[in-house]
Specification:
Order of helices and strands: HEHEHEHEHEHEEEEHEHHEEE
Number of strands: 13
Number of helices: 9
Structural class: alpha/beta
Oligomer: single chain
Distance between the termini: 43 Å
Shape: elongated
Strand content: 15-25%
Helix content: 25-40%
Strand order of the largest sheet: 2-1-3-4-5
Radius of gyration: 19 Å
Amino acid sequence: MNDQSRSPHILVVDDHREIRDAVTRYLEKNGMRATPAKDTKEMDSHLRAGRFDLIVLDVMMPGEDGLSAARRLASAGGPPILMLSALAEDTDRIVGLEVGADDYLVKPFNPRELLARVKAILRRAERPEPLAGQLGGRKLGFAGWTLDTDTRALNHADGRTAVLTSTEFKLLTAFLERPRFVLSRDQLLDITSGRTADVFDRTIDNQVSRLRRKIEDDPAHPQIIATVRAGGYSFAADVREVT
């Protein structure tokens, strides 16, 4: 195996040829392999044919847009995603992170910043720790649910199942490790994505809402994940080991 084959392989998905080719060339110039794709159909074809370490994914594209594709890929446990968008609104950035992207970069961008963010995402992905942290290899029960931290299978005693994205799984295990403790939004964001919150960042609130919809009997009146005024959130259910 040569050095090139061991270098990170990046899939660059953008309908603008100039941007797509420029990003591809810049990544290759900096020691990475890069494969361009003009839309999500071509992206899916490349993903079926080979393995990629990260996807640089444009938001605004004809056909399936980047947000829809990111949501689909994250749900299927796909590679990490760096989203690109010409939209600078906070809500657009937060939605991108909420659907499963690992980072978000606004166009026009400095190529050096893109490279730095790509490297940061790759470093996080290469960390040897399992997503479940200290809970790896265990089955935990709470409020009628059982979570297998190795397979991420979440099943209820009444037969219900819930499919968790990687971010939702990290969020749930963060709560399960610290039941009854108040966790701030900054703490939860650092645990789930390794970054700190910006002003007005509602990413964690959105992620908690999505998790509540999957595990709470009445998400509008949550009994498992409680909101703590001016504090953050607390996991209000008892947690036990299941054998």
